[in-house]
Design goal:
single chain; 207 residues
Amino acid sequence: MGNVFGRKSRPSRVTEQDKAILQLKQQRDKLRQYQKRITLQLEKERLLAKQLLQNGRKEKALVLLKKKRYQDQLLNKTENQITNLECMVQDIEFMQIEMKVIEGLKVGNDCLKSMHEIMSVEDVERILDETQEAIEYQKQIDEMLSGALTQEDEDAVLAELDAITQGEDVALPEVPTEPLPEVPEAARTEPEKRGAKNKTDGEMLAA
């Protein structure tokens, strides 16, 4: 029980503008109810005046018609008041929207100011200069590479780049899996004999 009574109530989100709009709408609804009631009453009095004329009570019918005429004027005034209330409600609602827009602009301006404080004009100029230097350096490297590579090399580089971009491996020649044929004994000893003979002839000439 103590927690219940000791709990702090949350602040209401209903603003004074919301309360004003609610009151205006309530007044508008009351006027519409009054307008509807008077309209029904006027229809009844018109039928009654018609019946009085049929019964020969012209003076009584004239009094009812005068009353009806006065109430018609009241209905026109009521319609004007309803229109004014609706316009006022729309003005207040639009003003609320404008206030939210202004608050958003204020937050945006504060954010821009804080960003300007973090990064000054000098920092921006320095970053731009460094970026330009990096672009020029890369351009020099590209020019050097383009002069050192042939057209065939350029095509191979582009093909490898496309393969890497598409996530594919570059096609390489397959390694043979079959064993190499053995060299016959006579074929292996023949070069050795020929080398020994050449060596002997060289020694004899030298002598």
